[in-house]
Amino acid sequence: MAVCQICKKSGQSGNNVSHSKRHTRTRWNPNIQKASIEIDGKVQKIDVCTRCLRTQYKVSMKD
Question: pLDDT confidence of 10, banded at 50, 70, 90?
Answer without folding.
Answer: very high
